[in-house]
Specification:
- The chain has 547 residues and is of the alpha/beta class.
- The protein has two domains: 295 residues, FAD/NAD(P)-binding domain; 186 residues, no CATH class.
- Helix content is 31%, strand content 16%.
- The protein contains 16 helices and 20 strands.
- The strands form five sheets. Strands 1, 2, 3, 4, 5, 6, 17 and 18 form an eight-stranded mixed beta sheet that branches. A five-stranded parallel beta sheet has the order 7-16-8-9-12, covered by helices on one side.
- The longest helix has 20 residues.
- The protein is globular.
- The N terminus is likely disordered.
- It binds NADP nicotinamide-adenine-dinucleotide phosphate.
C-alpha cells in the first residue's frame, strides 16, 4: 500500500486506509479515472476491483463470440495521442481477448496497477458525516476511507440469471455468459441449450453451433440484427485511421451516440422507395451499427422505423431457408433499434444448420429445468450444458449490488425504491462527494462507451480540481436539480425507445424492477454541452460547501 496516507492521511483514522479518492472498478472508466486524478490532480487514489485483473465487463464476458459492436479504433481512449498511435487494432471489431490486451497495455503503459487492489470486492460504502469521509468495506473486512468515492462499476456487470424452477437439480453444467469460466467451455459432442437472443446470444449461437453436437436456441423475443461484416484491419487502413485520428475524434464528439459517423439529415419518408431500399441495402452490405444512422427519424417516427424493420424482416426471409423458422425469427413486437440493436456474424444463417433447433418460447414457454434438460409446455429437450445469455440487471444493478449509504445512513436501495434518480447521472442528492461514472440518467449505454466514460471522468476530475482550488470540501446534487433532471430524461425519452416493452433500458427484463427509462436519450453531444454549462456556471444544481 505504497501511497496510503500520502495526502489525506491526517484525516484518516488509525483503523482504516485513507486516500483522497476510492474508485470502485478497474474497467475503462476506473482506469482512466485513476490516471486522471493521479496525474492531473496528484491525488492519492486506490482502485478496488473484484476481478483478478483489469477489464471490467470485458473481464467477465469471455463467452464464445464475445466481441464489441463499436469499431475497434473508436472503442478506445482518446486522451493520449501516443497511445492512439502505438496501439494496432487487428480487426474491424475487437474480440474480447484483444480488448483485454488493450486494457492491460493501458494499465502497464501508465503504471496504473500499483494503485489497484484486485480480488477486492466492495460490500459496503457509507458516508461518515462526523468525519466527512466515505468508509468503504471489502469482503475481506478491510476498511478504506476517502474524501471522494467514485463508482466505475459499469452498466452491464450484474448478471441476470432468471429464476426457473429446477435449475438446482440440473445434472449438466450451466453458465451465464457474463460470468464465463476463464478456461472456457468445451462444447464438442455436447447438447447445448442457449436461453436468450439479445446481443450476447446472437454472438454466441453461431460459435457454439459450430462446435456442439446440437444447439437448441430458446427464444422468447425475436430480435433485429444487422451483419457486422467483421474483417481484419489491413495495415493501410490502420495507417489511415492513425493519420486521421483528430478528425475521427471530432466526429465522435459531435455525434449523437459517440460513434465515428453522423446521423443522416434525411427522413426515411422523404426519399423514393427505390432510393430508400438502395440506402438500406448499402448499409446492410457495409454492416454494423451505422445501419441505424441511415435516416434521421428511425427512432422518432414509427412509419420511418417500419421501413427499416420491413427491410430487415425481408433479409431474414431471404437468409433462413425454412420459411416457418424465418417467420419465428422475425421481430414484430418492437420497433427496430428500440432495443439495443445487435450486430452479428452468421446469426440467421445458423438456423440453416442441421444441428440447430429454434425453440419458440412465445407459444410454448419454459415450464421447468429437469435433471436432464429443459422442459417447455411443448416438449422436453435433453441437454448437457445450459448457457444463460439472459443479460443483466443493467445500470442500477451494479450500484445496488453493495450496501451504499449516504447522509443519515440512508440506503441507495431505499432512495431508488421506485427507480433511479440522479442529477446528470453523475450525483445523487444525499450522497456528498459520490460520483457515479455513466450512472443512470446519463447517455452511457446508448453510446459507444469510451466516449461517455471519458466525458464523465474529465468532468469529475475538473470538478474535484475546482473544489480543491476553491477550498471546497463537499459537493452534492440538490433535490431540485435531481427532480428537474428526471423530468428532462423522461421528456427526452419521448421517442420510440420505450416501445420495446421487454427492454433492459426500462429495467423490464428483471422481475420486480421499477420501469423507468434509465439512460438519457437526448444525445451525447447535447449532454456534453449541458454538463459543460453546469460547470461553467459554478456547478449550478450542486451544493458546494467548505465543510
Ligand atoms: P439482453 O439484451 O437483455 O438479452 C437477454 C435475452 O435473454 C433476451 O433475449 C431475453 O428475452 C432473454 N431472456 C431473459 N430472461 C429470460 C427467461 N426467463 N426466459 C427466456 N428468455 C429470457 O442481454 P444481452 O444479450 O446480454 O445484452 C445486453 C447488452 O449488453 C446489449 O444490449 C449490449 O448493450 C451489451 N452487449 C454488447 C455486445 C457488443 O458490444 N457486441 C455484446 C453483448 C452484449 P426477452 O427479450 O423476451 O426479455
Amino acid at each position: 500500500m505504497a501511497n496510503a496516507h500520502r495526502h489525506d492521511g491526517a484525516r484518516a483514522s488509525a483503523g482504516d486506509l485513507g486516500f483522497d479518492a476510492i474508485i470502485i472498478g478497474a474497467g475503462f472508466s476506473g482506469l482512466y479515472q485513476l490516471y486522471s486524478l493521479r496525474e492531473r490532480l496528484q491525488l492519492s487514489v486506490r482502485v478496488l476491483e473484484r476481478a483478478a485483473d483489469v477489464g471490467g465487463t470485458w473481464y467477465w464476458n469471455r463467452y464464445p463470440g464475445a466481441r464489441c459492436d463499436s469499431e475497434s479504433y473508436s472503442y478506445s481512449f482518446s486522451f493520449s495521442e501516443h497511445l492512439e498511435q502505438e496501439w494496432n487494432w487487428s480487426e474491424r471489431y475487437p474480440a474480447q481477448p484483444e480488448i483485454m490486451r488493450y486494457l492491460r497495455h493501458v494499465a502497464e503503459r501508465f503504471d496504473l496497477r500499483r494503485d489497484i487492489d484486485f480480488n477486492t470486492e466492495v460490500v459496503s460504502a457509507r458516508f461518515d458525516e462526523g468525519r466527512g469521509r466515505w468508509l468503504v468495506t471489502t469482503a475481506c473486512d478491510r476498511v478504506f476511507s476517502a474524501t471522494y468515492l467514485i463508482t466505475a462499476v459499469g452498466c452491464l456487470s450484474a448478471t441476470n440469471v432468471p429464476t426457473i424452477d429446477g435449475l438446482e437439480d440440473f445434472r449438466g453444467q450451466w453458465y451465464h455468459t457474463g460470468n464465463w469460466p476463464p478456461a472456457g467451455v468445451d462444447f464438442h459432442g455436447r447438447r447445448v441449450g442457449q436461453i436468450g437472443t439479445g446481443s450476447t446470444g446472437i454472438q454466441a449461437a453461431p460459435v457454439i453451433a459450430a462446435q456442439a453436437a446440437h444447439l437448441y436456441v430458446f427464444q422468447r423475443t425475436p430480435n433485429f440484427s444487422i451483419p457486422a461484416r467483421n474483417a481484419p484491419l489491413a495495415p493501410q487502413a490502420q495507417a489511415e485511421i492513425k493519420q486521421n485520428y483528430a478528425e475521427i475524434r471530432r466526429i465522435m464528439r459531435q455525434s449523437t451516440n459517440g460513434h465515428p459517423f453522423l446521423l443522416s439529415p434525411q427522413s426515411a419518408l422523404e426519399v423514393t422507395p427505390e432510393e430508400r431500399r438502395a440506402r438500406y441495402e448499402a448499409a446492410w452490405q457495409h454492416g454494423g451499427l451505422r445501419f441505424r444512422a441511415t435516416f434521421r427519424d428511425l427512432l422518432t417516427d414509427r412509419r420511418a422505423n417500419d421501413t427499416a424493420a420491413d427491410f430487415i424482416r425481408e433479409k431474414i426471409r431471404d437468409i433462413v431457408v425454412d420459411p416457418a423458422i424465418a417467420e419465428r425469427l422475425m421481430p414484430r413486437d418492437h420497433p427496430f433499434a428500440a432495443k439495443r440493436p445487435p450486430i452479428d456474424t452468421d446469426y440467421f444463417e445458423t438456423f440453416n444448420r442441421d444441428n440447430v433447433t429454434l425453440v419458440d418460447l412465445r407459444t410454448l414457454p419454459i415450464e421447468r429445468i429437469t435433471p436432464s434438460g429443459i422442459k417447455t409446455a411443448g416438449a422436453e429437450y435433453p441437454l448437457d450444458i445450459i448457457v444463460f445469455a439472459t443479460g443483466f440487471d443493467a445500470m442500477t444493478g451494479p450500484l445496488l449490488g453493495f450496501d451504499l449509504r449516504g447522509r443519515g445512513g440512508r440506503a441507495l436501495r431505499d432512495v431508488w425504491a421506485v427507480g433511479p434518480k440522479t442529477y446528470l447521472g453523475l450525483q445523487i442528492a444525499g450522497f456528498p462527494n459520490l460520483f457515479t461514472i455513466t450512472g443512470p440518467g446519463s447517455p452511457s449505454v446508448l453510446c459507444n462507451m469510451p466516449v461517455p466514460i471519458e466525458q464523465h471522468v474529465e468532468w469529475i476530475t475538473d470538478c474535484i480540481g475546482f473544489m480543491r482550488a476553491h477550498d471546497l470540501a463537499f459537493i452534492e446534487a440538490t433535490e431540485d436539480a435531481m427532480a428537474r433532471w428526471g423530468t428532462e430524461v423522461a421528456a427526452a425519452a419521448a421517442t420510440l425507445l420505450p416501445e420495446a416493452a421487454s427492454s433492459w433500458y426500462l429495467g423490464a427484463n428483471v422481475p420486480g424492477k421499477p420501469r423507468v427509462f434509465m439512460p438519457y436519450p437526448g444525445g451525447m453531444a447535447h449532454y456534453r454541452g449541458l454538463c459543460d454549462q453546469v460547470a461553467a456556471n459554478a456547478y449550478a444544481g450542486f451544493r458546494l460547501s467548505a465543510g
